[in-house]
Structures are given as structure tokens and as C-alpha cells.
Amino acid sequence: MQFIIVATDDLATLGRQLAHALSLHEEHSGTYWTLKHYEDNEASLAKQPVIFLGESKVSKPYTEVLPVRFADYGTTCRFEGAKAVLLADDPDSVSVDDLARFERVVEGRAEELRHIAETTNVPGVVEVEAQAETAGAQTPSVAVAHQIPVGVRVALAVQPLFDAGKGAVDFIVRAVNSGKRKRAYLRLQYRYVLDRFLKEEFEVFVAGVEGN
User: Fold this and answer.
1) Is the pLDDT of residue 179 over 50?
2) Alpha-carbon distance values, 159 to 80, 117, 132 (Å)
3) Which end of the chain has the smaller Cβ count within 10 Å, N or C?
4) Per-residue b or e along 151-177, where b marks 16 or more CB atoms closer than 10 Å to that residue's CB
């Protein structure tokens, strides 16, 4: 499935990284579009699946009609049909403790994703080897990888690219600059909402697109 990722200017890097992560998997591919490119081509998209990152003049109309799938830590995920919107509210203020706590939440979810990838139930190694040998195709490692939910695989592919601030946040939590803390917190929010969308909702979103 071909996904279009539309991101605001400040989330352009994340938009490109998500598009790249989707394209690493045989089931899907992704393309990053600017807001202007989306506006210029919106009429031709029909039922093309689109994921919006950030609030903008093109995503705002959808936030008014798409149902909320989850909302937590100042983030909101909305989707229905072929459109999904991932948003984070710019925090009014962020204390050192707020930032440290939220970093632990985000990193904890990242660890959950890695754990799922490492412990996903798959056929026994002997059985997989036999299947691969008989089919003359997939190696055990590839067969095992295909048992991991696609959303988890995409989330894991984005994480090495999207450094939410591990290390950088360790420095910022000691800083007195509230502006830096707010920017670090907002970056963590987008990692949180994206990871959660991919882990918990991505397959549901894809099924909704395919059902249209």
C-alpha cells in the first residue's frame, strides 16, 4: 500500500523518516509531501491513504470530523477511512521533572516494541527451517521477521532515525531554559504518538483503507 505522509515544516524530517521506514517493507511504501504539494494534488488522491503529522490548514478540517482513537500526554490520534492525523499540543510549560518522567514513558514504550520483536511467537526453528528448505525460499530469519506485526516493524525502523533526545534530553533536563525543555517535550510527544499509532492502530487503519 502506498502511503502519503504530509507534515508541517517543523516535522518534515520525521515525515521523511516515516516514509522511508514504510518503504523498507514489501507490504507498503511511503512518500513525504509538503503541505503545498498536498494542496496542489489533493483532488487527484481519491482513496489514497494519507497520514498527517502536525496541525496545519490541510489537516485541521480532518481533526474536526475524524474520530479520536486515543489521546494521552497531550497527543491525539484520529483516523477513519483513508485519513489519519497525529497531533501534539505545544505544552504551555515543562518542568525538569515533567520532561524526565515523559522521557521514561517514551523509552519504556520503545523497549516494549523491541521486546515484541524479540519474543513474537513463531514456529519452532526446526519447523521453520524445514518449511524454508521445502519452499526453497525464505530463510528462518526472514520467516521469523514476517511474523512481527508490520506496525511494530515500521516503528522500530523509525526509531534509530528519529532520536527523540536520548542523551540530549539528559542534558536539557538540567537546563534552566524552559524553551529548550518545551521543544524536547514536544519532540518526545511526536515520537510517543507515532510509536503508539504504529504499534496499536496501524493494522486497524490499513484494514479500514482496504475496506473502502
Assistant:
1) yes
2) 25, 13, 30
3) C
4) bbbbbbbbbeebebbeeebeebbeeee
